[in-house]
Write a structure and sequence with these properties.
With 360 residues, this protein is α/β, with parallel strands linked by helices. Helices cover 44% and strands 15% of the residues. It has 16 helices and 12 strands. It has a 7-stranded parallel sheet, with helices on both faces. Helix 4 links the parallel strand 5 and strand 6. The protein starts with a strand and ends with a helix.
Length: 360
């Protein structure tokens, strides 16, 4: 396999599965954690390695080293592997997804943004989602007629925080997730609920379904639910561990235990909450974006700029979602007809959002 983002949590878990099932790792692609990358190289002996920064190639213990965006795309083409695990963060994950699919490779996709911004132009038959929510939806499907799909959210860092405090929440507080440790961007996306909006868009493209929603389940034990036309509802329950969806994405079929089963008596009870707009302002545009999924490029670009500004102390926490909504309304008439349009719209939204924030 080719592992994009090998030193992140998804990449590390993918390599855990590779180790467990003795799978060949042909390419490793990483960002800045070069110490971990070097240890992965020593264990898995990839044919090619790529890193983000061309100036750090001398710190990587490998003879076939590539760097930068072009380098990542090149190693995808050089590799004979037909499976790409894409766990890159943000818009940067789109080109590798498109490149892999254009070469007939399958993509085990953890990069939400690929579908959020480019789902209209991606062959879903080449995609296997690694998100636990979409894996859960897939796992529940049988021959029955589906009425509605529901995914769950943890509620993020501020699910229990008084609303009056949110306006002045610090970066450190926003990064303090109640259920688990994740990367910085996805933790903020979880806190704003933008992450769940992205996942609804992913489900829209993956399953071609109109009736979609999300609810908060505070213990992150239920990952997805499906309402069937007959009136029954089934839920996917599993301990929160990405190795399960990754195992299915890499192996196709799993016949041995990956995780311990959930002990419902130990859990005791479950709590469900509605996603409220006063706590998660981004939910204001949920229904509209699901009717206009081609506008996902707008919310992604504005959100990435907003998170950067929040980290830099230029805006407060609640302004991240407000800026995304403002951009979404400003670019209401966009409708990309090809991937070139997607890149042009992305650049325009980033410029607009940056100017809006600098004029505050």
């Amino acid at each position: 396999m080719i592992v994009l983002g090998s030193t992140g949590s998804i990449g590390v878990n993918a390599l855990n599965i590779a180790r467990k099932f003795n799978l060949n790792v042909d390419v490793l692609v990483a960002g800045n954690n070069l110490d971990l990358l070097n240890s992965q190289i020593a264990e898995f002996h990839p044919t090619y390695v790529a890193i983000a920064d061309p100036n750090k190639k001398d710190k990587v213990n490998h003879k076939n080293i590539y760097a930068g965006e072009d380098g990542i795309l090149e190693v995808i083409g050089l590799s004979e592997s037909q499976l790409v695990v894409n766990s890159l963060v943000g818009f940067a994950g789109l080109k590798p997804t498109i490149t892999a699919i254009s070469q007939g490779k399958k993509v085990a996709l953890a990069n939400k943004e690929s579908l959020v911004v480019g789902g209209k132009f991606i062959d879903m038959k080449q995609i296997t989602p690694i998100d636990s929510e979409h894996f859960g939806l897939w796992y529940l499907l049988g021959e029955r007629v589906v009425d509605k799909m529901i995914i769950t959210a943890s509620g993020g860092s501020f699910r229990d925080t008084p609303l009056k405090v949110l306006q002045h929440a610090s970066v450190e507080e926003a990064l303090n997730h109640p259920n688990w440790s994740m990367g910085r961007k996805i933790t903020i996306d979880s806190a704003t609920m933008t992450n769940k909006l992205f996942e609804l868009l992913e489900a829209k493209w993956l399953f071609n379904i109109d009736k979609l929603d999300a609810i908060i389940e505070t213990k992150s034990i239920i990952h997805a639910l499906v309402d069937f036309k007959d009136g029954s509802t089934t839920a996917h329950i599993a301990n929160a561990d990405m190795k399960l969806p990754i195992a299915y994405a890499l192996l196709g079929e799993v016949r041995q235990q990956i995780l311990p089963s959930v002990d419902l008596l130990e859990i005791g009870n479950l709590e469900f909450r509605k996603i409220e707009q006063n706590r998660y302002p981004i939910w204001e545009i949920k229904d509209d974006i699901l009717q206009n999924p081609h506008r996902g490029v707008v919310i992604n670009a504005a959100n990435e700029i907003g998170i950067e500004a929040f980290f830099e102390g230029k805006i407060n926490f609640m302004d991240i979602s407000k800026g995304t909504i403002k951009a979404y309304q400003y670019f209401e008439d966009i409708n990309p007809q090809n991937l070139d349009d997607v890149y042009e719209i992305d650049a325009a939204v980033r410029e607009y959002t940056s100017l809006q924030q600098s004029s505050r």
